[in-house]
Design a protein that fits this description.
mainly alpha; MetI-like fold; 0% strand
């Protein structure tokens, strides 16, 4: 007597039933909200949503606004620097932690602790640290180096890098933990084989370990990229977008126009562009993660 395989549609019925509320929420809230936003970005909505169709006028106005262009430039600078620096620092810290050092738990907690703080707290802390009157500059000058200058938040040309310092301080700990989990998942036999073959440690990391950690790197990339696109609290707490508009970001532009400028149409257009930026990251990740598995 042969037992028939259950149809794929009827497998894991309890799990699929349990997932129904989440699926409905995602479709109604996320998909519905996104489509509603994109639709009203084509209108001349001001204080309240109003279906007065104007086509792509809001997008033309958006890309002709200096503040928006500066915010995109800042997002690019912050994003590229944040990705590269956080990955490098996070991986180096994880590699050091993976050496089974003493007091590992203590060091790991200290490095991860900033991630537990809100961006508002982080921004205010680093606003104080980078203040030339009583921060790092004041302390160094108090030691006798009277010509020392370090006031990135008050210099429009480098203010975005002051934001970057605070972002790295908060986010690098999480990346370290993710990288450390990936390193701990590497089979110890690989390390032993590399030592027997006389392969230097740095080559083992570069050509063997890092390629094996591809899933960890992709997941970390998506998390960091999503946090970069929506960065808002850090800007408000540290500089408020200043000096001038030198540290403006797209998320702050959206908030200011939707709630401060009472121009919903312009805010919807800007948020739609932010959604496209997120999709540029998420779609390749989904393809690499799920498309590759199906082909395999």
């Amino acid at each position: 007597m042969s037992s028939e395989r259950p149809n794929g549609l009827f497998r894991n019925i309890p799990a699929k039933v349990a997932a129904i509320p989440m699926i409905i929420t995602a479709l109604v809230v996320f998909m519905g909200g996104s489509l509603w936003t994109m639709a009203y970005s084509l209108t001349k909505s001001k204080l309240l949503p109003k279906w007065k169709f104007v086509g792509l006028d809001q997008y033309e106005r958006l890309w002709s606004t200096k503040r928006w262009v500066v915010s995109i430039e800042n997002l690019f600078i912050y994003g590229v620097c944040m990705l590269i620096a956080s990955f490098v620092i996070g991986f180096i810290l994880a590699a050091l932690m993976d050496q089974k050092i003493r007091f590992e738990n203590t060091f790991r907690t200290i490095i991860l602790y900033p991630f537990a703080l809100s961006f508002i707290v982080t921004g205010l802390v680093w606003q104080w640290i980078l203040n030339p009157e009583f921060g790092i500059q004041s302390i160094i000058r108090g030691l006798g180096f009277t010509s020392f200058e370090f006031d990135p938040l008050y210099n429009a040309d480098i203010a975005i890098y002051g934001i970057l310092i605070a972002g790295l301080w908060q986010g690098t700990g999480l990346i370290m933990v993710l990288m450390l989990a990936g390193l701990r998942g590497i089979d110890q036999e690989i390390w032993k084989a590399a030592k027997v073959d006389g392969i230097p440690t740095w080559k083992t990391y570069l050509f063997i370990v890092i390629p094996m950690m591809r899933p960890v790197f992709i997941t970390t990339l998506v998390l960091v990229a999503a946090s970069i696109v929506k960065v808002y609290d850090l800007i408000v707490a540290q500089t408020g977008g200043g000096p001038g508009i030198s540290t403006e970001m797209p998320a702050k532009y959206v908030y200011d126009y939707m709630f401060g400028g009472q121009n919903l149409g312009q805010g919807f257009a800007a948020s739609t562009m932010m959604l496209l930026a997120v999709l540029v990251v998420v779609i390749p990740w989904a393809y690499l993660e799920f498309g590759g598995k199906k082909r395999g």
